[in-house]
Design a protein that fits this description.
Layout (H helix, E strand, L loop, with lengths): L14 H5 L8 E12 L7 H11 L3 E7 L2 H15 L4 E3 L3 E4 L4 E8 L3 E9 L7 E8 L9 E7 L8 H18 L7 E6 L8 H7 L9 E2 L42 E6 L9 E3 L11 E2 L21 H11 L5 E6 L4 E3 L2 E3 L3 E2 L5 E8 L8 E6 L4 E3 L3 E4 L6 E7 L5 E11 L6 E11 L4 E2 L8 E9 L7 E7 L9 E10 L3 E3 L6 E3 L4 E7 L8 E12 L7 E13 L16 E6 L7 E7 L3 E8 L5 E10 L2 E7 L12 E9 L2 E9 L2
Parallel strand pairs: 1-2, 8-9, 16-24, 17-24, 26-33
Antiparallel strand pairs: 1-14, 2-5, 3-5, 4-5, 6-7, 7-8, 9-11, 10-11, 12-14, 13-14, 15-18, 18-22, 19-21, 19-23, 20-22, 23-24, 25-27, 27-31, 28-30, 28-32, 29-31, 32-33, 34-35, 35-38, 36-37, 36-39, 39-40
Helix pairs in contact: 2-3, 2-6, 4-5
Keywords: Signal
Protein name: T9SS type A sorting domain-containing protein
InterPro entries: Endo/exonu/phosph_ase_sf (IPR036691), FlgD/Vpr_Ig-like (IPR025965), Secre_tail (IPR026444)
Length: 665
């Protein structure tokens, strides 16, 4: 049966992109800070308006200033958040930040979006402590995907006053604490700063460059100058959504003319890598951080007065007016990328010198506006891939990359290619590569060594005594790392009395040789020697790198005699000689020859491994002659011998020879 090497087919069609459908979801994270004007839970009439604001703003995390009791924390969680968006919200405990008047805070969050841990407070030179906690997006395992959040409510009071000095001292304490964070830490600070412009010492302290910049903050809106009652900065104003006279009880009026509520980010959150601040433009063309509800059209007037609010509409504008004397400030964070792609690539089998290239895919399975995926590739020894840095936006189709094997030597090649990326959960994703590189086939007429030319002598017989003779072709030395030998053609030239029994059919040879039987038609043949040449054209099996292999030549002869003795010929040898069996190994007919220069007793027999004689081929006194004796593999009992190793023994005065003979199935 023709040899067939097992093959493996690997489909790469969009495999990496399909993985995105099962990856944990990643998305933008919406984080808000809101001063809710001394809310202690007793102001139940405000809660419907607060719910309207929450549904419109739809934050994932919200931190509150002026949350003045644990009861207020509970009512905001249950009567505002989980009433507006049932079952989605949880919260940290309420923490007291100021003893008189009592003021506190809490962090509220959607449990499907984030987890919150490590809530603590930092003491400052101001009247209120600063709460801080760690926010971890649920779609990620690595803490590198999270950030430390700080909430502030700095001392109120005008610029150029003792209150401004107090703010500077508070910010000095905060900056010193932030400088103690590990380099590269992602963190944000937000809340009611009571800053009137960038000239304030507290603002400068937070954003200035120092010898230690681990804690340096950045104002994403990058505003300079005095903001207070400056119409050039109207789009960033957060106080007050109401005018004096139309505000709910206890609110500060005056319309929108101050930028008190601000989000600051660390520089690591604006570097375009992994977790990042998203500048905006995603909602109503607003720039983030966004003073939610500020449409740049309501300077020094109420947020819900004419003209109709162009960013949130009248209903939400009315709710903002009724909820607090501060607008919330919303910042959008682009969460880190999520690498998805192929985990293995089985390259096609090739032959030394061939080319085996395959394609694997890398995609960013996060959802827009998550950060872009940045990555590079490192190939294992024996493989080559593309150099350089690569980028893939969230949700975009996969990048296709090629890898190929070094085919200069044979072997089972394997190793892990690494996709080194800024996905915090998979910074070095392995792609297992494998490829088999084969040696070239080795065409031969002998199994033990390379033989490209051999004689095939039918011997000397009278008409009617010629038997078919085998020709056997091998892929010499074949093993799992050698290409199969394709025998492409077998061509006989010379005397037309010779033919291939059954004709020639191309075949692929591996570990077992292929036998063709040659027939000599002696019908009406005259006493003479007939000759022909059988040529086999060979090549490697059809893998890339395959080439033509050696042609094999069999020189065929058959001598017709008129001597009725059968095995004797007319030419008397001059030297005593014994010729090993051929072909060897053999499946059917084998020829064993010897020369007797003079008449002598001679014995030619076949023995098994136990030393038992199983076939007698010649025995007695023989005349001087060249003898070529054909054996068809049958024992003295008439049955075919089993496949295996046998010994042929020739004994005559002056010579004792034993040689091995392998009988094939």
């Amino acid at each position: 049966m023709p040899f067939r090497r097992p093959s493996i087919v690997v489909s790469l069609a969009a495999a990496a992109f399909a993985l995105a459908t099962v990856a944990a979801p990643a998305h933008a994270l919406r984080v808000a800070t809101w001063n809710i004007a001394r809310y202690d839970g007793s102001q139940t009439s405000l809660e419907p308006s607060m719910r309207t604001v929450i549904n419109g703003m739809n934050p994932d995390v919200i931190v509150l200033e002026e949350l003045d009791s644990a009861t207020g924390r509970d009512r905001f969680l249950n009567n505002v958040l989980n009433t507006a968006q049932p079952g989605q919200w949880s919260a940290t405990s309420w923490v007291q930040l100021q003893s008189f008047p009592v003021e506190g805070g809490a962090i509220f969050y959607k449990t499907a979006a984030v987890t919150v841990s490590g809530l603590t407070t930092i003491s400052t030179s101001g009247p209120r402590d600063v709460p801080t906690c760690f926010i971890q997006p649920t779609a990620y395992v690595s803490p590198a995907a999270g950030f430390q959040m700080f909430s502030v409510h700095l001392k109120a009071g005008g610029p150029g006053t003792a209150d401004s000095t107090t703010r500077r001292l508070e910010c000095t304490d905060i900056r010193n604490y932030l400088n103690g964070l590990a380099p590269g830490t992602n963190f944000m600070l937000g809340g009611d700063t009571n800053f009137y412009g960038d000239q304030e010492g507290g603002y400068a302290r937070l954003i200035e460059s120092q010898l230690n910049n681990n804690g340096r903050l950045k104002d994403p809106n990058g505003l300079s100058g005095t903001w207070h009652q400056n119409s050039s900065y109207v789009q960033w104003f957060t106080q007050s959504p109401c005018l004096s006279g139309d505000c709910p009880s206890g609110f500060t009026g005056g319309g929108l003319d101050d930028r008190f509520d601000i989000w600051f980010t660390s520089y690591g959150m604006e570097d375009g890598v992994a977790l990042d601040y998203a500048p905006g433009g995603a909602i109503n063309s607003s720039v983030y951080p966004w003073a939610y509800g500020n449409d740049n059209q309501h300077y020094k007037i109420a947020v819900n007065s004419a003209p109709t609010n162009s960013t949130v509409g009248q209903t939400i504008a009315d709710a903002l007016h009724a909820s607090s004397d501060h607008l919330p400030v919303l910042i959008v964070l682009a969460l880190p990328p999520k690498i998805v792609g192929d985990s293995e690539l089985d390259l096609a089998t090739i032959i030394v010198g061939g080319i085996s290239a395959g394609t694997f895919q890398v995609a960013n399975g996060a959802v827009q506006p998550a950060s872009a995926l940045h990555y590079s590739l490192t190939a294992p020894a024996g493989f080559v891939t593309q150099n350089g840095s690569f980028t893939r936006n969230a949700g975009a189709l996969p990048n296709n990359h090629s890898a190929h094997v070094d085919a200069s030597s044979p072997g089972f090649k394997s190793g892990a290619l690494y996709v080194n990326s800024d996905d915090p959960d998979s910074s070095a994703k392995p792609v297992q590569l494998s490829c088999t590189v084969l040696r070239h086939a080795s065409a031969s007429l002998d199994s033990a060594s390379v033989l490209v030319t051999t004689p095939l002598d039918f011997g000397q017989h009278v008409v009617g005594q010629f038997s078919d003779m085998p020709v056997r072709v091998f892929d010499q030395g074949w093993d799992a790392l050698e290409a199969g030998l394709s025998v492409d053609s077998g061509t006989l030239t010379g005397d037309s009395r010779f033919s291939i029994v059954g004709g020639f059919n191309p075949t692929l040879i591996g570990g077992i040789g292929q036998t063709w039987s040659i027939h000599f038609d002696d019908t009406n043949a005259t006493a003479q020697t007939y000759t022909a040449t059988l040529t086999f054209a060979t090549s490697d099996e059809p893998y890339d790198g395959g080439t033509s292999q050696a042609s094999l030549t069999v020189n065929i002869s058959a001598t017709v005699t008129s001597d009725v003795a059968g095995v004797k010929g007319r030419t008397i040898p001059k030297v005593l000689a014994f010729y090993p069996p051929r072909p060897n190994p053999v499946a059917t007919n084998v020829e064993i020859a010897f020369d007797l220069p003079h008449a002598a007793p001679a014995s030619l027999a076949v023995f098994d491994l136990a030393g038992r004689r199983i076939a007698t081929l010649a025995s007695g006194t023989l005349e001087a002659d060249h003898y070529a004796i054909a054996w068809d593999g049958r024992g003295d009992g008439g049955g075919r011998v089993a496949p295996g190793l046998y010994f042929v023994r020739f004994v005559t005065p002056g010579m004792h020879r034993t040689t091995r003979l392998v009988m094939l199935p």
